[in-house]
Amino acid sequence: KKDISVANFITHETHCSRNIEVCRYCSELIPKSEMKNHIESEHVKVTCKCRMKIEKCLLKDHEASACPLRPALCQYCDIQLPFNKLQDHETFCGARTEPCPGCGLNIMVKDLKEHPRVCG
């Protein structure tokens, strides 16, 4: 999958066909001697903490962006909790009230950023 000079092409092609394989899972070029290890280390199924079975090579991305148990921060109190609990927590947390330093009214936490526009 690289440009090879015409003079070296036949030798190169012969070498590649003897020594290199294309992984059937990820299409990467892997030395034949390392293919078994590659499949066992990258494409073996593992279980995420959310109980989803996934290829080991995809686990990091899953844990970072798709796992329902990935860590997430509440936008109101900065507490860390699992992503699948975030919406319920933020609904509750944003409904708390705090006194406005300007007018003294109790304002819901979710409205504190917008309140200065209407605060007398």
From TrEMBL:
<dbReference type="GO" id="GO:0005739">
    <property type="term" value="C:mitochondrion"/>
</dbReference>
<dbReference type="InterPro" id="IPR013083">
    <property type="entry name" value="Znf_RING/FYVE/PHD"/>
</dbReference>
<keyword id="KW-0862">Zinc</keyword>
<dbReference type="Pfam" id="PF21366">
    <property type="entry name" value="TRAFD1-XIAF1_ZnF"/>
</dbReference>
<protein>
    <recommendedName>
        <fullName>TRAF-type zinc finger domain-containing protein 1</fullName>
    </recommendedName>
</protein>
<keyword id="KW-0597">Phosphoprotein</keyword>
<keyword id="KW-0479">Metal-binding</keyword>
<dbReference type="InterPro" id="IPR049439">
    <property type="entry name" value="TRAFD1-XIAF1_Znf"/>
</dbReference>
<dbReference type="GO" id="GO:0008270">
    <property type="term" value="F:zinc ion binding"/>
</dbReference>
<keyword id="KW-0863">Zinc-finger</keyword>
<keyword id="KW-0007">Acetylation</keyword>
<dbReference type="InterPro" id="IPR051986">
    <property type="entry name" value="Innate_Immune_Apopt_Reg"/>
</dbReference>
<comment type="function">
    <text>Negative feedback regulator that controls excessive innate immune responses. Regulates both Toll-like receptor 4 (TLR4) and DDX58/RIG1-like helicases (RLH) pathways. May inhibit the LTR pathway by direct interaction with TRAF6 and attenuation of NF-kappa-B activation. May negatively regulate the RLH pathway downstream from MAVS and upstream of NF-kappa-B and IRF3.</text>
</comment>
<feature type="domain" description="TRAFD1/XAF1 zinc finger">
    <location>
        <begin position="78"/>
        <end position="120"/>
    </location>
</feature>
<dbReference type="GO" id="GO:0045824">
    <property type="term" value="P:negative regulation of innate immune response"/>
</dbReference>
